[in-house]
Design brief:
It is built from two helices and six strands; from the N terminus they run αβββαβββ. It is of the alpha+beta class and 138 residues long.
Length: 138
């Protein structure tokens, strides 16, 4: 998680006010970037160990406003966020040797209402593979 945090914190365009580990329950500043685990499953098994796949969700939040100019600039920032998240996560596919491999999934965009405020969101699933994570003892 620390290496993912380091990679995502290096994004400068758009300039996120913060990068959070964990899904936010409230958003104080915008744009904000957060990531959290969404699942883990055994993926491959040998006679001596089991590998896993863990999925992380990376989500950027951009607060919407009534101004057409602001909405237009948010759409440009959404594009930049999709590209930068992809680029940063692919720049270190084994997360400094902590995982065997990783894969960046397809980015999706949408809207989210949180505490009466509307946010434009970019969601990017990120899957990590760890070979031999669990040892099988006969």
């Amino acid at each position: 998680m620390a290496q993912i945090d380091t990679l995502l914190s290096a994004i400068s365009d758009p300039a996120f006010v913060a990068v959070y580990r964990g899904e936010p329950l409230a958003i104080a500043g915008s744009p904000l970037l957060a990531f959290w685990m969404t699942g883990r499953a055994d993926a491959f098994e040998t006679l001596g160990d089991v590998g896993s796949r863990t999925t992380i969700m990376v989500r950027a939040y951009f607060r919407m406003q009534d101004s057409p100019d602001v909405r237009e600039s948010i759409e440009l920032a959404v594009w930049d966020a999709m590209v930068q998240i992809d680029s940063q996560l692919r720049s270190d596919a084994d997360l400094g040797g902590n995982v065997t491999d990783s894969n960046v999934g397809a980015a999706t965009v949408g809207y989210l209402n949180m505490s009466g405020a509307v946010f434009r969101t970019v969601s990017v699933p990120y899957e990590m593979e760890i070979m031999g994570e669990v040892t099988i003892t006969p």
